[in-house]
Amino acid sequence: MSEQASAAPLGEIPPARSRQQGRRSAVTLSDGLAVVGTATGDRLGFETTSSGPPVRRWSHESDGTPSVVAATPFDGSVHSGGGRRSASRAAGGVVVGERSARGAVCCHDHDGSVRWQYETSREVGDPQSDTRFLRPFVASLATDGDRLYAAARRYERRPDQATERHFESVVYAFAADGTVDWTYHTDASPISLSVREDRLAVAYNRCPGDHQHGLVVLDTADGTPRWMWDPGTAGQRRVGDVALLEDGAILTSHGDYCGYRLGADGAQRWRVPLATPRAVDGERVYAYPNHVHATQSGAVFVTGNTYPEDGRETAVRHPLEHTAVGISLDGDRRWSADVGGFASGLGADGDLLAVPGAQHFRDRDADTHGLRLFDVESGQVQSVETDGIITAAAVDDRSVVTVEEPVVYHDEGRERGAYRLHRFPRSG
Asked: Which of 18, 46, 73, 375 has its CA 20 to 30 A from that of 79?
């Protein structure tokens, strides 16, 4: 870790293993406070304004066995039903989302007290069994300053039906007091939200049922669809991530492994191949473009693990796996850089992008653990090494914070790193 970095412990958790196990930690920054949602369901608030290690100011212990998988500041005005009403207290706070039997969305005030909580299992249903991947999952949170938007889903297996994979999912619009202003239901798997002005974009990464649109843009006033888009490819895989612009959207396609820019009405403006299938040592392999961050300066796409077209195991690597690719708003490639491993999510503030480098489960190279910081237009500006894997990051105008998790690779047997929060001054 950088000499200027400092860290605070987050407790004890079982170390990650060779294969990724999905998100189980989250972090966000709000007015000098870093709020961490932990793998044990606890929420911890740390002051980050001093030059020393983050100082824990409050904690909220879990009452069950959830993990916190999403977090975002929420500083909206208290309102309901599309109209505002005055509030007797500040509306600022932080919202977290769980993967748990209840699939809770919980709003904390700046002092850690719970303002409101909502259990998404009311709509998406109870888990088919008490296993991690079958529990309700708050996949994404977003805010426009007035409302909090949440996408929750629940997965189940239906071996006695033609379509074995099934999802129940709901997009929620919450007022600052926790009132549900509207919902949008589908039988697809939402993975990402992006909100801008009066538009909310919802990316669906799997569509095994009746809903067959990888991207839906909703009106924030009432949740009605404005337009929809789909890569038009075979299979259930559709869209991995989306970022709204002033005049449209940029997204990653899991259907054809490309990045797209769409106009205000959903018409395609450009398409750039990313980790598309290619022959490597006699085998055709690809990698999903999992993330995108876009501003008026351009877009950055981040790809994931290599997979073969036939089967799931391969000894070869796609040359653009675990790669950040910078693209201009005209669709021209500017730069590319290695991100070290699988990125479970992004942290961003304007044109500065933080990409966590978790494990590369095929190569299991501990030397790549860390965080890479990129400028949207010019590329990499900073790299930070860690012992364990970085699984979550957040950026504001002063600091970068990351969550490090311990890891043990099956063919090494050594525990690397610890569960801790790192903070260091931002660069760029």
From this structure: 46
Looking at this protein, which amino acid is placed at residue 384? V
SS3 133: helix
- Whole-angstrom distance, CA of residue 104 vs CA of residue 116: 10
Is the full-model pTM beyond 0.90?
yes
Q: How many residues does the chain have?
A: 428
In this structure, are residues 257 and 289 in contact, taking their beta carbons and an 8 Å threshold? yes
Longest dimension (CA), the chain: 67
Question: Which of helix, strand or coil describes residue 366?
Answer: helix
Contact 10, 377 (CB under 8 A): no
| Strand ranges across the sheet with 389-395 | 6-9, 420-425, 399-405, 389-395
Joined together, the tokens standing for residue 235 give 């299979």
How far apart are the C-alpha atoms of 240 and 80, rounded to whole Å? 31
Q: CB within 8 A of 18, min separation 6: which ones?
A: 359, 361, 364, 409, 410, 411
The residues that bridge with 107 in the sheet, in sequence order, are 95, 116
Could you tell me which of 216, 118, 207 has the C-alpha nearest to residue 167?
Answer: 207
* Structural contact between residues 288 and 240, judged by C-beta atoms closer than 8 angstroms: yes
Q: Beta strands 333-338 and 323-327: pairing type?
A: antiparallel
Rounded-to-integer distance, Cα 192 and Cα 241, Å: 5
Structure tokens at 378: 């010019």
Per residue in 391-423, pLDDT tens? 999 999 989 999 999 999 988 889 999 999 999
**CA 207 and chain centroid, separation:** 19
Tens digits of residue pLDDT in 16-66:
888 777 899 999 999 999 999 999 999 999 999 877 889 999 999 988 788
- In eight-state DSSP terms, residue 276 is -
